[in-house]
């Protein structure tokens, strides 16, 4: 029977190849980026002007959010944000609160694709990225928010505003591991009128719909108009423009816009919106035409179109 020391040596020899493989192999996204950078992606970028707020205990979320908002030109202090987004019972901030906190400060918070390349392209476009990391193990997580502000593909590093460190460098492979353990979650906070470099139509539409609920109508309108210019075939974005025009006190512009949208998309919903605004403006003939067009299209909006037609047919009472 081998001695205890010899057994330890044997176990160490058996474990060595596995440990070596785990330590030295780059994760897939890092390997692809370092090996051959995608076209149009600079090798090195750092957004040195991004504000830094050293976090206090459990307040990495408010500190990271304040830095991202400051970079977008929206001044916010971690202490103020903490009152809005920090959950004492959880000793931290959930992702939903981070997004909602950004919106309450006037930013459109857009989720990014779960790709390391997307994060680097946002930084290259001048947009700091709020990232969620798991700095421990999947089974015993230690969640942490930081702001990605730079990268160097030749050095294989990223630069973060993280914790109490203004310029924290981390190897790309380590960053990818910690980010992957947190579900590849990241977002940018931008003023309405600016679009992320990598966010798709669906994620941007979702971000704007959520932003519209809390934003001033004029700010929502800027966001929708900018997105519609990039994705002109989107019915949802077009309806968003019409809704925010109306909410901003421009009903005639909203009516014209909804009629154009309804014709382009053969949309019963847009015709109903147009008819409702026309009736509000006292243009009953125009309202009736819109309701009739909605009924002609049919489908799920039939009941709403009939209800609108009934409202139009009710004679106004004399004063």
Description:
With 319 residues, this protein is an alpha+beta fold. The longest helix is centred in the first third of the chain and has 21 residues, at 4-24. Strands 1, 2, 3, 4, 5, 6 and 7 form a seven-stranded antiparallel β-sheet that branches. The protein has helices at 4-24, 28-35, 60-71, 78-85, 95-104, 116-124, 172-180, 201-214, 217-230, 235-247, 251-265, 268-280, 284-297, 302-313; strands at residues 44-46, 108-111, 129-134, 143-152, 157-162, 165-171, 186-190.
Q: Estimate the strand proportion.
A: 5-15%
The CATH superfamily label of the largest domain reads Cysteine proteinases
Largest sheet: 7 strands, antiparallel
Compute the number of strand runs: 7
SSE arrangement, N to C: HHEHHHEHEEEEHEHHHHHHH
Report the CATH architecture of the largest domain. Alpha-Beta Complex
Total number of distinct structural domains: 2
State mean pLDDT (0 to 100 scale). 89
CATH topology of the largest domain: Cathepsin B, Chain A
* Total of helices: 14
Shape: elongated
pLDDT < 50 stretches: 1-24
List keywords for this structure.
elongated; 319 residues; 13% strand; single chain; 14 helices; Serine Threonine Protein Phosphatase 5, Tetratricopeptide repeat; disordered N terminus; alpha+beta
Secondary-structure topology with pairs:
Blueprint: H1 4-24, H2 28-35, E1 44-46, H3 60-71, H4 78-85, H5 95-104, E2 108-111, H6 116-124, E3 129-134, E4 143-152, E5 157-162, E6 165-171, H7 172-180, E7 186-190, H8 201-214, H9 217-230, H10 235-247, H11 251-265, H12 268-280, H13 284-297, H14 302-313
């Amino acid at each position: 029977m081998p001695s205890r020391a010899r057994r330890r040596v044997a176990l160490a020899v058996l474990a060595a190849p596995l440990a070596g493989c785990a330590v030295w192999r780059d994760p897939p996204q890092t390997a692809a980026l370092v090996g051959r950078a995608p076209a149009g992606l600079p090798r090195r970028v750092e957004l040195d002007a991004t504000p830094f707020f050293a976090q206090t205990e459990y307040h990495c979320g408010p500190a990271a959010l304040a830095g991202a908002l400051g970079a977008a030109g929206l001044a916010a202090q971690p202490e103020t944000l903490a009152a809005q987004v920090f959950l004492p019972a959880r000793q931290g901030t959930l992702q939903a609160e981070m997004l909602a906190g950004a919106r309450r400060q006037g930013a459109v918070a857009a989720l990014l694709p779960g790709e390391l390349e997307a994060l680097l392209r946002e930084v290259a476009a001048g947009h700091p990225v709020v990232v969620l990391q798991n700095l421990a193990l999947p089974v015993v997580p230690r969640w942490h928010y930081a702001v990605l502000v730079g990268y160097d593909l030749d050095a294989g590093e990223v630069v973060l505003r993280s914790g109490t460190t203004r310029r924290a460098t981390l190897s790309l492979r380590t960053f990818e591991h910690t980010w992957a353990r947190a579900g590849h979650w990241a977002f940018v906070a931008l003023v309405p009128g600016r679009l992320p470099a990598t966010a798709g139509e669906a994620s941007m539409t979702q971000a704007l719909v959520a932003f519209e609920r809390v934003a001033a109508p004029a700010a929502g309108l800027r966001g929708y108009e900018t997105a519609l210019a990039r994705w002109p075939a989107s019915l949802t974005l077009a309806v968003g423009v019409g809704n925010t025009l109306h909410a901003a006190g421009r009903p005639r512009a909203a009516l014209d816009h909804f009629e154009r949208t309804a014709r382009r998309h053969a949309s019963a919903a847009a015709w109903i919106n147009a008819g409702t605004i026309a009736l509000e403006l006292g243009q009953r003939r125009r309202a009736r035409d819109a309701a009739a067009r909605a009924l002609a299209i049919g489908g799920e909006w039939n009941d709403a179109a009939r209800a609108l037609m009934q409202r139009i047919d009710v004679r106004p009472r004399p004063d």
